Amino acid sequence: MTSADPAPRLALKESLHLERVHHDRCRTALAAMVDGAQEQVVVGEDVSASGADAEVLGYQLRSQAKEMRELPDGPLFFGKLEFDRGDHAGQAYHLGRLRITEHPAAPPLVVDWRAPVSRAFYQASARDPQGVAVRRRFGWAAGSKGESADLTGLEDEHLSKGDSGPSAIVAREIERPRVGPMRDIAATIQPEQDDLVRGDLALSVCVQGAPGTGKTAVGLHRAAYLLYTHPQRMRRGGLLVLGPNRTFLSYISQVLPALGETGVRQSTLQDEIARHPVTGTDARATAVLKHDPRMAEVLRRALYARATTAHVNSLEIKDGSYSWRVGAGELARIVADVREEEPPYGTGRERVRSRVVRCVQLQAERRAGPQNGAWVQRVSRSRVIGAFLDAVWPKVRPEEVVAELLGDQEKLAAAADGVLDAEEQKHLLWARPPRSWKSARWSAADLVLLDEAAGLVEHPEGYGHLVVDEAQDLSPMECRAIARRARFGSVTVLGDLAQGTTPWAARSWDTVLRHLGKPDAAVVPLTIGFRVPQAVVGLANRLLGRLDVEVPEGRSLRGDGELVLRPTPPDALPDAVVDAVRGSLAHEGPSGSSRPTRRGRVRQASTRPGSPRGAGRAGCAGERRTGRCGQGARVRPCGGRRACRDRGGGGTGAAPAVCRADPGGVAAGGGARAAAAVLARWRPPGGVWPSGETGGGRPWVCAVAAAPGERGGRPRSGQACSSSGSNCSSS
């Protein structure tokens, strides 16, 4: 067949037409499903069920209708399987993010990607076709809202004929720029990722992932898979996704809804354990100590020291004409036995109560016969037994335990004896203890102590499954807080030991899993990256030898594009950056030069007009070679020395602008994260600097970073810094 043969092109055109028709049919069916779910909620129907069951059914119907109404726009399927062998021989299935059918009893138009039959889409190969004759992937226009016309291509692999290879559609998806919130990867899940996603609910797993390997996406898709596969257990036990901060949660917030799951709780550990607002601070050494696992034993001792037999006296309980007596020895034995059992403190108090009542009940039954439940309840709540419990096992709040421990040197010394040395105890003590726990100024590190104490008093509510991201940054005490919420559930732990950022960052997953109460969880590495360019991954691999962690090197499938890494001595960095930007500005198209900088800042440089480096360079985020500032960054001359903020943009999210002299040409900066920093030429109209120029003739430059989402362009008309430099204002 020659290249001029029109048959392949006609076949492709016909296939695209048929698939677009099928997509239109799916869109119509989905609209009917949404209307039907809403109608069930509004109109309702008679069911044979108890009041409680009917309430549950109504809740489920409302939840289903809400989930379907909130489904995001987008293509309804991304793949197709045609089987020629096995149980599905002769069948073809379109795969999408949710099941679509024209009638509950009719064959599905689209099969959910989590269904068992869908697994072959991710796992089948020419070597092991798993009964698949043809695997088809669909190419959709970027940013498609799900219009059938956006279906622009398809790609077939004839697995039964040994035809299999790298997918161009998957490759384009990998290379596509990442902008905005995180997207789901249901269409591009790789076999090793699919194994993790479809792991059994009872199994806990830890994913050690190099940068850009999709570990977060794997965790979220595993959550969606468990919700689909075990709906009753997940609804009963609940599922919690824990992220490192709220910004991260905002970034991933659209993934689960896109997969049809809208009822999942997503939170941070700080929010989960926040019994009180954070109003205090700790020195670094103090915070590290409070996150130390030894504090768990100190708190346990401090709490159970309240349960004492030092002043136990016999009890005499009046019961009508009878009087029942329990000896001091028997009471002391009951308290000692319960302490040895180490139940939650609150449970222990009730256990002591029930055993004392049992002693009284045995005496009463020997004298007056069996006693009913009302009698047992009356004796249990008698003032005599209540006073006894207050003496030997008093009620306590977690705040009282922590406040007394941090505010009383003697109590801390007793609880920390043999656990913390004298210097460590000194670090823990509050400089000015509050009059009571109600006036205490709790620090962020105190929250983990409060949660530990609360867990000793009463077990917190648990979850059926927890997904924990960036787990390498968790302290042992934070891990214990998570473990209390996963006592009867499983966990999916995600992170990279080489990316730890906290003083207590983990060096070994074994340690993390032990503190999480899941020491037998499997640790599975992901080493193939899809987001980070190869050159960056290679550079990161070179740093692994200097880190006190053992993790495998990563590799990336994403090309470098025009990215060039140029080793540069620190002293030569300013000149090298300026030279690199000069070279970039000589070519058309977007450009960028990077060096470490604080997030949210704009790298800037300025020199005297006429100096060898040129006049008035100012850094702005998103600078393009056309001379325009992208991403809404604006650069204006400024006549003052003080920091200024942009009042021209207004609104939430506006980034600060900084006005300062820069005699060195490039402002110094630091920080652990790399952010784009671009230098551009800029001169005021006519080359005249404002009259407020100070600092020995050096021009002042005010670089204003745009608020998120603001469009790029030239500086706004009338935008300038005041002559005093105290602020930026719009004239």
Automatic annotation (TrEMBL):
Residue stretches in coiled coil: none
Recorded superkingdom: Bacteria
GO molecular function: 3'-5' DNA helicase activity; ATP binding; DNA binding; hydrolase activity
Keyword Transmembrane in record: no
PROSITE patterns: UVRD_HELICASE_ATP_BIND
Region (Disordered): 145-165, 585-654, 708-731
Example GO biological process: recombinational repair
Keywords from the UniProt entry: ATP-binding, Helicase, Hydrolase, Nucleotide-binding
GO cellular component terms listed in the entry, alphabetical order: cytosol
UvrD-like helicase ATP-binding domain ranges (all copies): 188-533
Biased composition (Low complexity): 606-621, 717-731
Residues binding ATP, per UniProt: G209, A210, P211, G212, T213, G214, K215, T216
PANTHER family named among the record's database cross-references: DNA 3'-5' HELICASE, UVRD / RECB / PCRA DNA HELICASE FAMILY MEMBER
Protein name, entry field: ATP/GTP binding protein
Organism (species): Streptomyces sviceus (strain ATCC 29083 / DSM 924 / JCM 4929 / NBRC 13980 / NCIMB 11184 / NRRL 5439 / UC 5370)
Lineage summary: Bacteria, Bacillati, Actinomycetota, Actinomycetes, Kitasatosporales
